[in-house]
Specification:
11 helices, 72% helix, 0% strand, globular
């Protein structure tokens, strides 16, 4: 009995992570539907992040309460505030604006594909910011990462510019199978793609969102060193990002006051689900599994979104998926895993170098002791 419980506990992280990717794609399709039905992406971002921030702030302070024990809190300096400002701008305002605008112009399969370019941008930014002496061009891990970046770029070009024929073309009679019959306008309950699609523009916006995430990662690494309470840091830059998103939404929608009004209950449900799942549940589960399984475990499941998006597109939404898009997404997925493999090899090489350095330091000490004897 205990062995069965142990086996279930071992596979539970895998099951949860796969389900999370499926839920992410389902929410993406839900968001695509509401955006195409007239919901402003900028207003959606403000409402979603405002709700997530309201939940994050009290929970972050409770988590860092340390059972009532008073410990010195990190000093809140002007440079730290500027880092939070940059984190909120790049991680929330820029990333989400580009993401949901790109989604409104394309489809969930392109969202998945361009989201896998984040490691590519991370690598390029680290390459630009690293000094020449810090780069080990002969390292096998570095060389594998370069190959992965090249494969990812090829896949991105393929997904962006070569859509190809439809995987499941259907007649016009089959297009209404997921429409709301109670709505006189015959609007679809759920949408995977829209007509007309601005595919190239959507891809550029989604790639820009991935670049914004890479910039956010770059800033976050240095911020964590200055501020030792990560959940409070998330709450602070979430608040700043929400304020900046509200300013952007006010500028964009200043001539349309009705854009701030939710037209029906489905939009409210979408905001609640996105705030709870995307802002609270998913990040905490990812942090938990990262601590449990290591830093490379959670990113392994990101390409699973391509499988879910392809399955939903083929089985449920006809006239939505193209062979070129799926092929490009698959190529990006191969590049994504290649980059991760290179990162793992790089970590192994660092550990082996550190162990050899420690051994080199110990050998002279042993020789001195032998001479004393």
């Amino acid at each position: 009995m205990e062995s069965k419980i142990t086996k279930i506990w071992e596979i539970m992280p895998f099951i949860v992570m796969v389900m999370m990717e499926g839920c992410t794609i389902a929410l993406t399709i839900f968001a695509k539907t509401e955006l195409n039905n007239g919901m402003s992406p900028f207003v959606f971002i403000v409402y979603t992040n405002a709700l997530a921030t309201i939940i994050l702030f009290p929970s972050s302070f409770l988590l860092h309460n340390n059972g009532g024990r008073k410990e010195p809190t990190p000093s809140f300096t002007f440079s730290l505030f500027m880092r939070f400002l940059l984190l909120g701008f790049t991680g929330i305002t820029m990333t989400l604006s580009f993401s949901f605008l790109g989604l409104s112009y394309s489809s969930p399969i392109l969202v998945c594909a361009m989201g896998l370019l984040i490691p590519t941008f991370n690598f390029l930014l680290s390459l630009i910011s690293s000094r020449e002496r810090e780069l080990n061009l002969r390292s096998s891990g570095f060389q594998v990462e370069v190959i992965g970046v090249m494969v990812s770029i090829i896949g991105g070009v393929e997904a962006e510019f070569f859509k190809g024929p439809l995987i499941r073309p259907t007649s016009s009679d089959d297009k209404l199978q997921f429409t709301n019959t109670n709505n006189n306008n015959n609007k679809p309950l759920f949408m995977f793609s829209s007509v007309p699609e601005f595919w190239v523009l959507g891809g550029i916006l989604l790639a820009s969102a991935s670049l914004s995430v890479a910039l956010w990662n770059f800033i976050q690494k240095k911020t964590v060193k200055e501020y030792s309470e990560p959940m409070k840091a998330v709450a602070y830059y979430s608040l700043i990002g929400t304020i900046l998103s509200a300013i952007v939404a006010w500028i964009v929608e200043r001539d349309d006051a009705t854009a701030w009004k939710l037209n029906h209950d489905m939009q409210l449900i979408l905001i609640l689900l996105t705030a709870l799942f995307g802002g609270v549940i998913r990040p905490n589960i990812q942090i938990w599994f990262t601590r449990m399984k290591g830093p490379f475990y959670v990113p392994l499941f990101k390409p699973f979104g391509i499988a879910f998006a392809t399955t939903f597109g083929v089985c449920i939404f006809p006239n939505s998926l193209h062979y070129g898009s799926v092929l490009g997404a698959a190529i990006i997925g191969m590049g994504y895993y290649t980059i991760m493999w290179g990162q793992m090899k790089g970590e192994e090489e660092k550990r082996s170098d550190e162990s050899s350095d420690n051994l080199d330091k110990k050998i002279p000490l042993l020789q001195e002791k032998m001479e004393e004897v």
